[in-house]
Amino acid sequence: MARRKRPDLDRGVRLARAKVEAAGIDPDLAGEAIQTYALALERAYLLRDAWERLGQPALANGSKGQPVPHPLIAAIEAAERHLAAADAALRPRSQPRGNTSGNRFGVPHAPDRAATVTRLPRRSA
Are 34 and 27 in contact, with CB atoms under 8 Å apart? Predict the structure, then answer.
């Protein structure tokens, strides 16, 4: 398997700055998101590289000798999720998050969803 080139932090920062600029954001305003992305990229690379150097093991021995998933696999997955979240943070959100309408969740607020109340005629005694 061909070895991938190790992304150093400077290259990660340059890549993140390019993504931010492509999204139309001033990179100087996204400094923390850029650093987070660069660190997440480096961490994901280092974990995957260590796993590949071990021969890409799928299983390891547990505390009682039983086969368990190799711990680097879970660490790689977590690092790649973090990298994806850091990547998403570099781009502007197209939709605001959460309920911004001011209405409570579960309460209908569209006119065609409003409940109609009908009263039954009174019984004559």
Answer: yes
